[in-house]
UniProtKB/TrEMBL annotation:
Name this protein carries in UniProt: DUF3224 domain-containing protein
Gene3D superfamilies to which the protein is assigned, alphabetical: SO1590-like
InterPro entries assigned: DUF3224, SO1590-like_sf
Source organism per UniProt: Streptomyces leeuwenhoekii
Domain of life: Bacteria
Length: 136
């Protein structure tokens, strides 16, 4: 997607995870409610994020999620939703790609389209992201 590329970091402000179904089975399902804070090109404090997670026997797994961000994108004010999809390795490294939910941009972000990614490694307090976008 041609457009503007921006980068920054986010931190997990809160992570609440609950099992879905039996906890002693493999694969195991969980639901997590997460609050993140973004800085850099995306400025959004206190996002709302919900993940569905599948844990495999070797501690690897997969997840999908939706996140609502309200704040600024390179100075433009508004809100938008991201659809997130990723995996995590046996060592806990997370690989995620995300995409703006079509039609979700509000305010100065109406018409926003974009995709991004991040890789989070165990113990990192701040996770780098990259995001390519267009505002129509």
């Amino acid at each position: 997607m041609p457009g503007t590329r921006t980068t920054g970091h986010f931190t997990f402000a809160d992570w609440k995870e609950n099992p879905v179904g039996p906890e002693d089975t493999t694969p195991r399902l969980a639901h997590a409610s997460v609050v993140n804070t973004f800085t850099g090109g995306i400025e959004a404090a206190g996002t709302f994020c919900e993940y569905a997670i599948a844990y495999l026997a070797d501690k690897s797994g997969s997840f999908t999620g939706m996140e609502l961000l309200t704040g600024r994108l390179d100075g433009r004010e508004g809100a938008f939703a991201l659809e997130e999809r990723g995996t995590f390795d046996t060592d806990g490294t997370v690989h995620c790609r995300f995409e703006v939910v079509p039609g979700s941009g509000t305010g100065e972000l109406t018409g926003l389209r974009g995709t991004g990614r991040f890789t989070a490694r165990p113990g990192e307090k701040s996770v780098a992201y990259s995001f390519e976008y267009e505002v129509e």
